[in-house]
Amino acid sequence: MPPNFRMDATNVEAQRIRAFCKNTIDIAAEEDYTSIIFPSSLNNDGIDWVAPVLMRSCKEWANESPYFENFAEIRILCTSHDDYEHYVNAANRMNTSKRRSKANDEYDDEMAEQAPPPTASKGRRRGEPLVPIPHEDIEHMKSNGMFLVLSAKLEPTILNLKDQEGRKRQYRMTNRSRDGRKLYFRCSRCDTLAKKCENAVRARLIICNGEIMGDEFPTHHEQCEPWTDEQLLVQQIDRSSRKTVKEGLLQPFEAYQDALTRISSVVANDSKTIELPKFPEWNQIRHQYVRIKKLTDGEGGEGEDEIPEGALDESAEIGYEDEEE
């Protein structure tokens, strides 16, 4: 807990405390923990301030977090009976407020009976489409230099961002809230390195309403290398070309030729001096483009005899050294 947080100072400070607590639970869930214990007091603040804020944090987390179903329990370690009573009273006050809110809304029992029954899962039902990320959030991210680009699966779930030294880092979206306003990212290269060491550092980012929450420049694995402009250029032009095949706009070889033209054009018009990246030869990536075409046409990809044994799969990257997935 940052020592300069004082939840009794202003409402904004209380909101920051709640955000800190909710992010703490999310990080624990990402590390595959199913329970967490909070102390009854934070920063030596009075228990009468801490109890309602911490209880509200847990309630908001349960309503908002995509990790809710993966978590078994959240405990608060009360060291005295008085502390315990404060938390019981805080919980009772929240329940009273909820009942009062229902009364003020003139809750209709008949309408409730006609409403569809709630699903057992608080998460998204299988097959239910995701709520798009709000346009205003995307525009706000762009204004802060944050752009979502195509992943290996040709979805805009990759975040390219500069670190504090101006080097390029790439984060992949690992989860998101149901309303699309809270996005969770992890550094893709840190993730690869972490598979070789259980306790390795993995840089994480959380973006809420288009703003980074918490540390804007998280610590990366000591062996995590930044990306070069050339690597990112080749990667994204390749992926955007494959997407034109997937959408039926171009044939595989047409998309490949278009990629070569665009990469030369971008380098020629770029104000920065970067070398013309070497784009893979057609015979190196033909199987990927053809496979996408066959999947789009509903033919499947198993019958493509040009795909050599052990070829790169759909999640493989082009334009930089091969990494473990």
Automatic annotation (TrEMBL):
Residues 299-325 have a biased composition (Acidic residues). InterPro entries: Macro_dom-like (IPR043472), RYYR-CCHC (IPR057001). Pfam families: RYYR-CCHC. Residues 148-224 form the RYYR-CCHC domain. Residues 95-129, 296-325 are annotated as: Disordered. SUPFAM superfamilies: Macro domain-like (SSF52949). Transmembrane segments: none annotated. This is RYYR-CCHC domain-containing protein. It comes from Panagrolaimus davidi. The lineage of its organism: Eukaryota, Metazoa, Ecdysozoa, Nematoda, Chromadorea.
